[in-house]
């Protein structure tokens, strides 16, 4: 369990990548309960969060952790990840300063801070925690095929690619459902979702044989707390590298309904440009026919990321076309709101 | 790399499970190049391998490692695995005796012998190796989507369930192809295959994000050595727990053709009896439509495990029906031979 609570005051490290390449930092700013008191980005020191991301709580952007100490932070959170998930040595002075100031440090890297000798020794000296949210629990095991028995409605996002809004859609749906008085819970499966929610298992980091089992365990646990679960999906079923994770999520979660996410205008798999994105109808068939023998489900709604369009009218037209293709209600839950999707699900 | 070579003299531990529940032991007896000089099974001590498995090289069955030392072994190989892949403490005296006699010990358990303090210390004292074939290399990474560029024909087994003969079919095909003078190689992806071949990565034990990448690396490496690769499949695409591994193999290997394995008469997923095995035609559609957006392929032949039938005539009829359903040539490559499949593939 990640020790982040709503009373924490959090500094988010996003050096040289805020906001466009700092997906975790922006996700945390937008959705986490806790207070972000400063962002570290040496390329933007002196600017403010509101200059770049207008619709979240504002905070100053400072050069380094030493400059953020005046805000009396409890936590330093690493809000960016280089390709490969390594630790960038240029961040070391910030992490060191945070620990020495008594802050816990939260990271979602493949490189574990706990295994770094300097940080581990320093954290012990200062009595702070190093929290590697990407380290899975060591007692995971194979799925028992029991998620369909969960006493909750389970909704899962599936997508046409990575980075199509699977986490965002679920967080918007949780908020919209809660506004209607529904006891809705978010089930995080990736590092950003885990940092936002304060719990969860990073399914992509689990031993392949245990991936569906990790999902099953989260579903069964969360079903005891909530009536409706919104499960963060990962990757896409046609991804050359990550499809196995997507498949484990589909069969491990045994969802009652799927929400299909897509980024308007995207034509190839992100980072794998030789692999074309097939027509959306093919994805619907694939996800539904793959789910059917294990736990039948269907695509009940769509969420379209319309950032490619400047004006709302073009976005609205794209959403309508997407809904027609899916033969299900669709919207952009960030640009507009999540109500249409929620109506289709409940 | 597993240090087993054709000159090694190997003792296989299979206590209380030989032969029917000792899949690894029997696989090694049937297909490995090295010499099995004794089998340890305290429930059958005094009997012989030939009493139970008639078509492999015979060997005595003895009670414990101490009784096998007279055959001057080089290696003790753990040929069984309890559910969960743990180490059975009743085997400890045998492993100890092997190490003290200067034998390497090879195991495919989730429990790593190298991490056992007693065994590690003893192995250091005696200068022997503890070889945990299920420990993946620590430098794996994500797939680059490059297996389709491999300079070899790639054949993958896919199945209707676990334990339907995916490894066996590939080993029979490799042997049949080599008999025809074809430069064929076996690509092992599970612990038994790795023990037989002496190399390979246990794909089910890899970090989920890296599973397709592990397969890709093996394909690209093996394609430099051989003209045709026969890749051991795992699980089934409709498995409640293991489907993610199957999906990673399909997309990581990017095979030119698939061979579909099935166990005649099986109606439910092994160990998951609430999950029915769908009609074989559905599997063909699923595997082919899932592969298509990443690397198109098709089911070119079928391998039917006909052990459920006592007489060859009934087996032959079942094979014919299976071939008709698949709309592709099929046979039982163990009961009959692999030629029909090979003809369909080459």
TrEMBL record, chains A, B:
This is DUF1611 domain-containing protein. It comes from the Archaea. Pfam families: DUF1611, DUF1611_N. Residues 43-136 form the D-glutamate N-acetyltransferase-like N-terminal domain. Residues 142-342 form the D-glutamate N-acetyltransferase-like C-terminal domain. The lineage of its organism: Archaea, Methanobacteriati, Methanobacteriota, Stenosarchaea group, Halobacteria.
């Amino acid at each position: 369990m990640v020790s982040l609570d709503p009373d924490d005051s959090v500094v988010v490290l996003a050096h040289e990548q805020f906001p466009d390449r700092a997906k975790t930092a922006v996700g945390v700013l937008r959705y986490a309960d806790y207070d972000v008191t400063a962002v570290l980005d040496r390329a933007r020191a002196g600017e403010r969060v509101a200059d770049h991301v207008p619709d979240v709580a504002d905070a100053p952007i400072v050069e380094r952790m030493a400059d953020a100490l005046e805000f009396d932070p409890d936590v330093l959170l690493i809000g960016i990840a280089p390709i490969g998930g390594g630790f960038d040595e240029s961040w070391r002075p910030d992490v060191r300063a945070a620990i020495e100031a008594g802050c816990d440090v939260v990271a979602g890297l493949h490189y574990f801070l706990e295994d770094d000798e300097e940080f581990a020794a320093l954290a012990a000296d200062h009595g702070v925690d190093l929290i590697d949210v990407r380290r899975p629990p060591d007692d995971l095991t194979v799925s028992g095929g029991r998620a369909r028995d969960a006493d909750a409605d389970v909704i899962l996002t599936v997508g046409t690619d990575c980075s199509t809004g699977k986490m965002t859609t679920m967080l918007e749906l949780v908020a919209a459902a809660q506004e209607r008085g529904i006891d809705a819970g978010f089930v995080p499966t990736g590092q950003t979702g885990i940092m936002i929610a304060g719990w969860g298992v990073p399914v992509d980091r689990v031993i392949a044989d245990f991936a569906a089992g990790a999902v099953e365990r989260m579903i069964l646990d969360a079903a005891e707390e909530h009536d409706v679960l919104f499960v963060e999906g990962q990757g896409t079923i046609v991804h050359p590298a990550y499809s196995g994770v997507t498949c484990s999520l589909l069969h491990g979660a045994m969802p009652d309904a799927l929400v299909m996410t897509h980024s308007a205008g995207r034509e190839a798999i992100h980072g794998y440009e030789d692999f074309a994105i097939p027509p959306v109808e093919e994805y619907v068939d694939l996800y539904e026919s793959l789910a059917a023998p294990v736990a039948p489900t269907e695509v009940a709604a769509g969420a379209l990321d319309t950032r490619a369009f400047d004006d709302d009218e073009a976005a609205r037209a794209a959403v309508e076309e997407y809904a027609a293709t899916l033969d299900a209600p669709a919207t952009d839950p960030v640009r507009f709101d999540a109500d249409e999707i929620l109506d289709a699900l409940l």
